[in-house]
Design goal:
Length: about 200
């Protein structure tokens, strides 16, 4: 299995308060979904990252500058988002208890109580524009103040993480008549969980 030095820190605050890091498998970070919805498109069909600066230190990704949306949807669409963690067990991917779904991602993009705000959107510097255009207006630039990305999970019942995991992220656009569009964005971030010795 290909591993890179790129690590995400997964902090799990269960009953033992264990910390985990995830060694990413794919140097490109964002892999296509193995079982994406029919018609779905990948990360790079929705986001242009050529002006985004990504630098990895031992266990942290430093991020700054610009992400540009290029997803082919309409400004009036509603975006439904889902994040789910899967575990590889005996040759099969199985769902875990960790999942977040939101029917209106754009209205909650700067909600301080959401994990994506704590990890990511709080560092967006042009908030007014991103709040208005979100993912639905092609060419919108999301500007970032420099920050360090650590993927954090708050474990609910102190389960231990072991082996191979993947986070499956989907964004689905729903039109004004409440009909989902076919070109759902689906991508996976795969890696191996390792406990950090305290
Ligand atoms: C990001 O966007 C800002 C505003 O348009 C621009 O000044 C800056 O040069 C861009 N950064 C990169 C790396 O393209
Ligand atoms: C966030 O959570 C706190 C505490 O539960 C609550 O008082 C606050 O209204 C919430 N904020 C939003 C934007 O939902």
């Amino acid at each position: 299995m290909l591993k890179t030095l790129l690590l995400l820190v997964v902090l799990v605050s269960g009953s033992w308060g264990a910390d985990y890091e995830l060694l990413l498998e794919d140097p490109d970070i964002f892999a296509p979904c193995t079982e994406g919805p029919p018609g779905s498109v990948g990360f790079h069909d929705a986001f242009n990252i050529k002006d985004l600066v990504l630098n990895q230190d031992a266990d942290i990704i430093h991020i700054s500058e610009n992400l540009t949306t290029i997803w082919d949807v309409q400004p009036t669409d509603r975006i439904s988002a889902r994040f789910a963690l899967w575990h590889y067990n005996r040759g099969n991917w199985e769902p875990t208890l960790f999942s977040i779904a939101t029917p209106d991602f754009c209205s909650a993009i700067f909600d301080e109580n959401q994990s994506w705000f704590k990890q990511w959107t709080r560092y967006i510097s042009n908030r007014d524009e991103v709040q208005e255009k979100c993912l639905t207006t092609r060419g919108t630039v999301w500007m970032h103040n420099p920050f360090d990305l650590k993927l954090r999970l708050n474990n609910i019942r102190g389960a231990t993480l072991q082996g191979r995991y993947k986070a499956v992220v989907t964004f689905e656009a729903v039109d004004e008549r409440d009909v989902p569009r076919k070109n759902t964005v689906c991508f996976e971030i795969r890696g191996e969980a390792e406990k950090i010795k305290n």
